Amino acid sequence: SFRLNDMAPITGGPGGAQWWDKVPSKFEDWGENRFRDAGFRAVPGAIVRRSAFIAKNVVLMPSFVNLGAYVDEATMIDTWSTVGSCAQIGKRVHISGGVGIGGVLEPLQAGPVIIEDDCFIGARSEVAEGVIVRKGAVLAMGVFLGASTKIVDRETGETFIGEVPEYAVLVPGTLPGKPLKNGQPGPNTACAVIVKRVDERTRSKTSINELLRD
């Protein structure tokens, strides 16, 4: 698309403004019948680039879904969230306000971020660099996960990198840093902490706030 298409104006900006890009909107030339057939909601301010897939019963608040992304059924993409290029979002996922789901283009990567079914991603969290969040996992507000982020289970001491286990409940945390050359304690490094794990039945019957209470 970037190599084949020339730059062109894209209409529809606020106040009659235009954009200037190579990839048109997914909704270019869509009418009422096309939207009804697609079966999802796109609130004013939602931007979806062509080649992204949006399944039925998805709700798109003012957000950005990049090219090649896949958003499955009954998922909510809340306000000011970004779903990066080729990211895969499962069914019944809640992507809260201001969340960033990384793509594969900048920087160029082979593995997309995958958020499996029934996950909850808390506000202002970031999941990038090909991290996989397994089914039913819950990320509290402000959890940052990249390919090198350590995910520590506080009950078992087990450490995960690049993958969140099924039905794990994560909060932001830190790990002690290495001592400095002068012997003083070094700065802590960021991590994510698994505070509990729940089964499918508990996850379906328990509110997110209750799960995150310690």
From TrEMBL:
- Enzymatic class: transferase
Q: Please provide, alphabetically and separated by semicolons, the GO molecular function terms listed in this UniProt record.
A: 2,3,4,5-tetrahydropyridine-2,6-dicarboxylate N-succinyltransferase activity
Q: Which UniProt keywords apply?
A: Acyltransferase, Transferase
User: Pfam families annotated for this entry?
Assistant: Hexapep_2 (PF14602)
- The EC number on file is 2.3.1.117
Query: Can you tell me which residues the record assigns to a coiled coil?
Result: none
Record-stated family? Belongs to the transferase hexapeptide repeat family.
**UniProt name for this protein:** 2,3,4,5-tetrahydropyridine-2,6-dicarboxylate N-succinyltransferase
